[in-house]
Design a protein that fits this description.
The chain has two domains: 109 residues, RNA polymerase sigma factor, region 2, helix turn helix motif (Rna Polymerase Sigma Factor, Chain: A, Orthogonal Bundle), CATH 1.10.1740.10; 100 residues, Arc Repressor Mutant, subunit A. Helices cover 71% and strands 0% of the residues. The protein is built from ten helices and no strands.
């Protein structure tokens, strides 16, 4: 795909990636998400604000939105350099509203406050440390924020069954026996699926590390 190999992408490159992504080019969409991740994360944090802090996790919200972005990118239309950002923020906002409604229902049903467990690191960071230490470290290969950004994008483009297992087993750390029972499959089948998902994500992260390393070059 055409585009510069280093430095921040210019407006023409962003436009090219937008038009390619809308036509189904996965590489272009990945690069758009990588470029816009910091702004999108900032938007998500502002939506959560103080009212929902501790009850809605930024990374979890973005992960859901990234899946929607991959699934609905065909509906995106380019107008200007900020078109993709504004389109993506609408998806994040819809996901945020869904989360708020779900939490309110749970609170009514349980009669108590629903909170996100206090964690020194996010689920995605913990997943990186457990399964991808050699893929994304040391920091000269990929900065921590870039690695989390890339991991979210890589998870979003997994097949649905792999993505579900990654979420429940690797991110939420639900026991294999529970996942197997919920999905009506054997524990060995879930374990193999989780392993294959990690293999796919490892390949994806290695490709991403080349992109981020080239942009970090002086």
């Amino acid at each position: 795909m055409d585009g510069p190999d280093s430095g921040e992408p210019n407006a023409l490159t962003i436009e090219a990636w937008c038009r390619l992504a809308a036509d189904g080019n996965v590489i272009a969409l990945e690069r758009l998400l990588w470029v816009h991740h910091s702004r999108l994360a900032g938007f998500a944090r502002r939506k959560i604000g103080t009212d929902w802090q501790g009850r809605i996790d930024v990374d979890d919200l973005l992960q859901d939105a990234y899946v929607d972005i991959f699934q609905t990118i065909g509906n995106f239309a380019y107008h200007d350099e900020d078109s993709f950002y504004h389109w993506a923020t609408r998806i994040i906002e819809h996901r945020f509203i869904d989360r708020v409604r779900s939490l309110r229902r749970k609170k009514r049903d349980a009669g108590r406050e629903v909170t996100v467990p206090d964690r020194s690191t996010s689920r995605h960071e913990s997943f990186l440390d457990r399964c991808f230490r050699e893929t994304v470290t040391p920091s000269r290969i990929m900065r921590r924020e870039d690695a989390i950004n890339a991991l979210m994008t890589c998870i979003a483009k997994l097949p649905e069954d792999y993505r579900l297992v990654v979420r429940r087993y690797h991110l939420e750390e639900v026991p294999l026996s529970v996942i197997a029972a919920d999905l009506g499959r054997s524990e060995d089948a879930i374990r193999r699926m989780a392993s294959r998902a990690v293999e796919r994500l490892t390949t994806c992260l290695r490709n991403a590390s080349r992109y981020f390393s080239s942009h970090d070059a002086p």
